[in-house]
Design a protein that fits this description.
The chain is mainly alpha-helical and about 170 residues long. The chain has ten helices and no strands. Helix 4 runs antiparallel to helix 5, helix 5 runs antiparallel to helix 6 and helix 5 packs parallel to helix 7. The chain is elongated, with a radius of gyration of 18 Å.
């Protein structure tokens, strides 16, 4: 990406932070006209389509294009995993997260965190705790360690509650 496109990208990112989504969208489109395979821009458009337009199909196509054209750009992997989680497409999420282990620019504790979210949503609290513990064990970030421990505490509380709701939980699974 040349300097003027980099500046335009940074302006679009600032527009996002200021809730100027239309301006950001226009800038991203301008970048893609000159550089159609720009991974960060494709990822940001995916985020816009998912969060602002709620067009999950378009969001997915932008995330996958970002991963294709910029395979070391970690944010698209994260956003795509979030989309799969939100859509409860857990089999695809599992495959995606396994591939993430092979990407050197992705922080591995994040992958375990996403596995933990998936298991927690599936009401598998013991499995979720295991993944959150793995995330905690390999992080070097004190804030993330605190966050992962909070997820473990939440799941422990849910485990306690689940004893009173065992029949309902069986129906939910």
């Amino acid at each position: 990406m040349n300097t003027s496109l980099e500046e335009l990208y940074l302006e679009a990112e600032a527009d996002i932070k200021n809730n100027n989504y239309v301006e950001a969208f226009k800038k991203y489109e301008t970048i893609l006209l000159e550089e159609p395979g720009n991974g960060p821009t494709l990822n940001s458009l995916g985020w816009l389509y998912k969060t602002q337009v709620e067009d999950f199909k378009k969001a997915e196509s932008f995330y996958l294009a970002s991963i294709k054209y910029s395979p070391l750009y970690p944010h698209a992997y994260n956003n795509y995993a979030t989309l799969l989680t939100d859509m409860e497409r857990f089999e695809e999420l599992t495959i995606h997260l396994q591939k993430c282990f092979e990407v050197p620019t992705i922080e591995k504790s994040w992958i375990y965190l996403k596995f933990g979210f998936m298991e927690e949503l599936k009401l598998n609290f013991i499995e979720a705790i295991t993944y959150y513990e793995r995330a905690a064990l390999i992080t070097l970030n004190d804030d993330k360690l605190k966050e992962y421990n909070e997820h473990i505490q939440r799941c422990n509380a849910k485990l306690e509650m689940s004893k009173r709701h065992a029949k309902w939980l069986e129906k939910m699974k």
